[in-house]
Amino acid sequence: MNSPQFTAEPSPSPSPSDADPYPHPVPYDVIIAGCGPTGAMLAAELRLHDVRVLVLEKETEPAPFVRIVGLHIRSLELMAMRGLLDRVLEHGRRRPAAGFFAGISKPAPEGLDSAHAYLLGIPHPVIVRLLEEHAVQLGAQVRRGCAVAGFEQDDEGVTVDLADGERLRARYLVGCDGGRSAVRKLLGVGFPGEPSRTETLMGEMEVGVPQEEVAAKVAEIGETNKRFWLRPFGGGAYSVVVPAAGVADRAEPPTLQDFKQQLRAIAGTDFGVHSPRWLSRFGDATRLAERYRVGRVLLAGDAAHIHPPTGGQGLNLGVQDAFNLGWKLAAQLCGWAPEKLLDSYQTERRPVAENVLDNTRAQMELHSTEPGPQALRRLLTELMDIDEVNRRLIEKIAAIDIRYDFGDGPDLLGRRLRDIDVEQGHLYGLLHRGRGLLLDRTARLTVGGWSDRVDHLADPTAVLDVPCVLLRPDGHVAWIGDDQQDLDAHLSRWFGKPAN
Question: Could you tell me how far CA 79 lies from the centroid of its own chain?
């Protein structure tokens, strides 16, 4: 933080005599570094509120390889809230919501509290493309081949320096630029945690032996080694995952020879692998940013937290960060945000990331082939025959167990509301615009001066166990009751002063 190129806390605004190359108002409200799922989703959320957004992506082209990722229940619900689910489902493959925790195979619990209780496997480049297209259709600008090299912030905004020497100006900057985030490093925010202790090789290639032979060997080894598999991917190719011999520089991709060597060490054969389409490695580093916000600069997604991919939670965690941050940052920019609303992004989301980091640590221990972890794995496998244990772990991985601390109240307060039936069809269909919603079963309440930010549905037939609920734009229940005065107080808490 000794470089004059950037500052963590806002520096004083320049005096009128200082040269200011930027006209006012600033050209952009928000610059987002990184156009992965988190950055693209955040851009779209901001555009729902007419925020001027520029997304900078340092890569000129999408990644050349196809990695399958899983959208868990909560992320599928968020897609439904913004009218994206049907589009996403066209490109994915559904599977039961089961077997996520440490790869322990148990059936999905019955009656999960969601209308979207399944996992959707989808190619990573496809979900990135769909979310980027969504953001662009809403009016976001995306520029590729643009890397953030530095920035300075003051009381009015952030000046961003690009690697090619160009300078840009925005009111806020959000780093969604991955685990090696340039924004986080320039901001000087600590990223404590544990470095990688183990690494895993992952790639896509063809094999030179019959499928039956591959399946038999994988089944045999998979009894004790959950970090090993070969799965048919289509077109004659296999997805290959195998533990690495040690921890190497992740900037250096592995070679086909590395795969052969490790396959022989673990399986006694290299299966005649050949013709790789792509090869990569991942580690089990676990880190969490000390702060999610410093002045006008914020962090989201992998820029704020990294963890092993076990359980498939990383992409989902980032997309859910974007959903939480988007409407709050928009409220700040639109001038109606209550005090500390933007700070609640860190207050709510950082504990969620802490919980994800802890459950991935636990899962990685259960992947170990050592006698102690294997004994724990056998014990947990037995305990997961108890429905409540199995359900608790699935809800944790699928992120439908989250309850933000909104104060004392019924258990539903602070939780997300499932996609219930209403007169107009489904609840989530009413949330496409990213606004708050009062679901009023008494038909006696009003949103009054907040109608520019909150919709009102008077529906006595809504399938709900409480009189009325106030939903935030991210679908979490902000208030429960039937008293207008109490409602007005909570509208002020979450949506600021009324317009009239």
Answer: 12
Q: 443-474, pLDDT tens digit by residue?
A: 999 999 999 999 999 999 999 999 999 999 99
pLDDT digits (tens, 9 = 90+) for 373-408: 999 999 999 999 999 999 999 999 999 999 999 999
Are the beta carbons of 47 and 328 closer than 8 angstroms? no
Cβ(304)–Cβ(353) under 8 Å?
yes
How does pLDDT run across 242-270, given as a tens digit for each residue? 999 887 776 688 999 999 999 999 999 99
